Every structure is written in C-alpha cells, then in structure tokens.
Amino acid sequence: MPYYAELDEDSQVLRVIVADSKEWCENRLGGTWVETKIDAGEQYAGIGFQFDKAHPKRFAPDWSSAGQTQQPDGSWIYNTQGQFAAHNGKIWTNLLPSGTPNVWEPGVANWREYQLGVNYTVWLQPTGAFDAYPSGYRVEHDEVEYESNIDANTTTPGGPGGQWTRLTPLPALDEWAPNTSYVIGDERTYNGTTYRCIQAHTSIVGWQPPNVPALWQAV
Fold first, then answer.
1. Rounded Cα–Cα distance for residues 61 and 64 (Å)
2. How many domains does the chain have?
3. CA–CA distance from 45 to each of 4, 8, 20, 103 (Å)?
C-alpha cells in the first residue's frame, strides 16, 4: 500500500498516511497530496504516520435514518457519490451520483460494501439489488468506459439490452478492400456504411459489401 504526504502551500509536509491513491486523499481529506516512500515505523520530516486517517473504517460515521428525509435547512445527509457510512458492522460507500439524495438504507439499495484497495471506477458484478448500479453511474469494463442507463443495473457493460451506454469512442474501422481475406465477424466500412462479414471469403473487385449480401451485412 503506498504512502502519501500532505503538503502545505510552501510544500512542507503536514502528515503522512497510508491510502489507496492520491485521488482518494484529495477527495476524502482535502488538501494537496504527493506519493512518498518511507519504511514502516519511520517518520517523514519529523511527522509520524496518522493511520487513523488512512482507512474509512476508522472515521466513517454511523448511517443515520435521518438521511432518508430532507433536513430542515433543505440539505440531504447522503448526497455525494463515494460518501462512507458505517452500518450493521460494515462500511458502505454511496453509489448515487453527487447531487442525488440517497434515501436508501445500506444493504438494501444504492450502497456498496467498501473494501480497501478496490478501484470502484472498474465495473464489479453486483451481488444483488442492494449494490446494483444506479442510473448515471460510470464504470470501466475491459478498458471501455460506460454509463448506466437504468437503476438497479446488474447487467454486464457491453452486453445486449441497452442498459449501458458506451462512452469510449469505437476505434476507426478500416475501409473494405479487394484481394483481402475476411472472416466472420470482421467489420469494415464502405461508402460511409459499416458492414459485418457473415461468411469467410477473399474479396475481389465487384464483391463490394452492398453488392454481396450473402457475404456482408450492414450494421
């Protein structure tokens, strides 16, 4: 697990902690952080570790049922994606997009059990409705970024059904060309239209995709 140092405006070290990432430190604790190297038990610039600040299990507040209703001042307790809450002996992180009140009890819906070291931008198979992805949640799967189109989304990004929108642009396809071997599933463009090969063959002049529907299917 890497170490991170918080710096003041003069680049002096304020504290050193163990944490998941630089982004985690800045998002959860504020301030400016840099990764540093230090052996266990040592001090850095005369400042010891603050392990109690490095793990949300040490400071996550207990979940409150008051979060299920709007507060007198108009605010909501749980309205930031990534918020932590302790409940039933576990630490949970809020899945809903920032600005959307999460009125659900952890373990019921829209919360995921927190695990140190897990990158929550990477898609994880939900184990049930309680940790399924809400509408608008963004994940990375097979190096492609997706956004959930529905609430309680337990499907795999990139699969059929339209439950996810692909955000990463598709790579540019090659143009169809003669004297080229194609296999089933190959995709090529011709005159601005994308075609998928449905029968393996070696192309020749005259076998342009729109001319041979037995070989190519418009996508």
1. 9
2. 2
3. 13, 13, 22, 44
